[in-house]
Amino acid sequence: MTRYARLAAILSQRIEQGLYPAGDRLPSVRALSQEHGVSISTVQQAYRQLEERQLVEARPKSGYFVRPRRAPAALPAVTAPVQRPVDISQWEQVLELIRSKPRAGLIQLGRGMPDIAEPTMKPLMKALRDAARHGDLRSLYYDSIQGVSALREQIARLLLDSGCRIDAEQLMITTGCQEALSAGLRAVCRPGDIVAVDSPCFHGTMQTLKGLGIRALEIPTDPLDGISLAALEMALEQWPVKAILLTPNCNNPLGYIMPEANKRRLLTLAQRHDAAIIEDDVYGDIAYQYPRPRTIKSFDEDGRVLLCSSFSKTLAPGLRVGWIAPGRYLERVLHMKYIGSGSTATQPQLAIADFIRHGHYLLHLRRMRARYQQNRDRMTDWIMKYFPAGTRVSQPRGGFMLWIELDEEFDTLRLNRHLEQQGVQIAVGSIFSASGKYRNCLRINYAAKLSAEIEQAVLRVGATVQQLMAADTLARSD
302-338: buried (b, 16+ CB within 10 Å) or exposed (e) per residue? Predict the structure, then answer.
C-alpha cells in the first residue's frame, strides 16, 4: 500500500469511528504532513482519494471538511419493457431535443453536454490554436482511414486503465461515438436482425437501430446493477439475437456500473449464443471511482466485443472524435467507415493526441470526476426538495445524468411543453425506449456549474410537476 493510501485509510477509519464528525474541519495539509512524517503532496493525494470516496469535501480557502451523510433517495423501479423485438419509434421527440440550440433565456437540462468551461480545457484549446496558427498543413490532409496514429497510440495507453491491452493498429478513429456504434452495428447486423439492448437505452442508439432497419429487444434493467442476465438469457434462447448493445459503465441514463462478475457472465452468454457485444464506454473515464471500472472488452478473448467510445463526454462534443476497437470485425468496420464518412477530421485528432501526451487529459478527468460527483449530490438534493413526495431518483456512479421517475400516470411530454414556455428544457423518458415506455420519467443533466439560476430551473420543473399532478387529480375527481 502506498503512503497516501495508508494515510487515507487512517483518516477514513477516524471518520467512520466518529472522531471527526460530519461537518467538522479536518487537520490541515501541513499539520498532517508533520504528524505522519510524509510530504505535503502525499497528504494532498490522500485527501483527493477521500474526496473520490465522498468522505470529505474541499472548501476554497478553508481546507477539508467531513461530508455530511446523505439519506439516499428512493431508486427508480427495475424496468419492465415489452420483451419482444419491436420496431423503434420516438424520432419526433428526439428531433425536438437535438434541434434545440443554446440561446439566451433557455436552460437546457436535457442535453448530454459535459462542462466545457473548466480551466483544465485550456491546453486543448491552445493545441487547436497552435495547429492553425503555425500553418501545420498536416491538419488539412486526409490521414489514414483508421485515424491519426499518434492519437491511436495514446488511446491504446489510456485503455490500460480499463483492463484492455489493445494495439494501436486494432483501433479506428471515428466521427464521435455515434459513428462508432453505427459502424459496429452495420458490421455485424443486417436489416431485420434483432439486437438486445438495456432499457432505458440512449436515444441515439435507438435511432441508429431505427435507421438501419434493426429491431430492438429491450431487456429489463436494474438501476444499480444493470441489465438482467436472467432476462437476457431467456431472450437469447427465445430469439435469434445477433448482437447485445449496452452501456455497462456509467450508463446513460441510469448511471449504474455493472458488477465485474456480471460482465464476465454476460460475455459467457454471448459466447454460448454466438452473439456480438457492442459496448458503449463513452462515460467510462468519468466514473467516480478510481481506478475506473473494467470494460467487458477487457475479458474478451475471441474478439466478439466491439468497444466504442469518444471524447465527446470527457472533453467536448464539438470535437467529433471517437473510436472503436472492433476485434474480429476490424476489416468489416473499416469498410463501413469508408463508405459512411471516410477519414475523420485530422486537426482535432492531432490536438487531442498532444493534450493526452502532455498529461493534461488525466488531470482534466480527475477534476471532472470530483466536480460531477459533487454536482450529482446537490442536484439530487434539489430534486428531493422541489419535486413531489414519492419521486424516485437514480444514483449515478459516474457521468452527469440523473434519471427521475414520477407517478406512473404522469406524462413528461406534456411537462416539457409547459416548461419550454418557462425557458427550461428536459429530456423526456419515452425517447429512451424503443416502444415509447417511460413517459413518466425524465433525464436531467448536472454537468454545468450549479448556479442559483439552475436551482431556479429545477424548482420550476418540480413546481410544474406538482401543478400538473394537482390538475389531474382535480379532473379525475370531477
Answer: eebbbbbbbbbbbbbbebbbbbbbbbebbeebbebbe
Among candidate residues 136, 123, 180, 169, the one with its CA nearest the CA of residue 352? 123
Alpha helices in 281-397 (DSSP H): 330-340, 346-357, 360-386
CB 241 within 8 A of CB 196: yes
Counted residue by residue, the chain has a size of 478
Residue 422, helix vs strand vs coil: coil
pLDDT band at 103 (very low <50, low <70, confident <90, very high): confident
Q: What are phi and psi of 146, to 5 degrees?
A: -80, -15
Which residue from 344, 322, 323 is spatially nearest to 176, judged by alpha carbons? Answer: 322
Inter-residue contact 145 to 343 (CB < 8 Å) = yes
The three cell numbers of residue 316 are: 467536448
CB 121 within 8 A of CB 259: no
pLDDT at 135 over 80: no
Output 115 or 89, whichever has higher pLDDT.
115
How far apart, in Å, do the first and last CA atoms of the chain sit? 68
User: Mean pLDDT for the chain?
Assistant: 91
Report the alpha-carbon angle 242-252-389, nearest 5. 130
Give phi and psi for 456, each to the nearest 5.
Answer: -65, -35
Give the span between the Cα atoms of 374 and 215, in whole angstroms.
38
Residues 6+ apart with CB under 8 A from 87: 210, 215, 434
**Residue of 235, 233, 239, 241 lying closest to 276 (CA atoms):** 241
Window from 84-98, 185-199, 246-260, 408-422 with minimum mean pLDDT: 84-98
**Which residue is it, cell 505535503?**
40
- What letters, b where the CB count within 10 A reaches 16 and e where it falls short, cover 396-430? bbbbbbbbbbbeeebbbeebbeebeeeebbbbbbb
Q: How far is Cα 169 from Cα 249, in angstroms, rounded to an integer?
A: 25
Query: Other C-beta atoms within 10 Å of 376: how many?
Result: 24
CA distance 305 to 328: 8
259 with 299: CB under 8 angstroms?
A: no
What's the rounded Cα separation, in Å, for the pair 330 and 417? Answer: 44
CA–CA gap between residue 220 and residue 30 (Å, rounded): 51
Q: What letter does residue 22 receive in the DSSP assignment?
A: T
What the block records as the C-alpha cell of 144 is: 489514414
d(CA 326, CA 347): 24
Query: Which has the closest alpha carbon to 202: 315, 283, 295?
Result: 283
pTM of the model: 0.86
**Residue range 75-86: mean pLDDT, rounded:** 83
The distance from CA 67 to its chain's CA centroid, rounded to whole angstroms, is: 25
Separation CA 45–CA 129 (nearest Å): 33
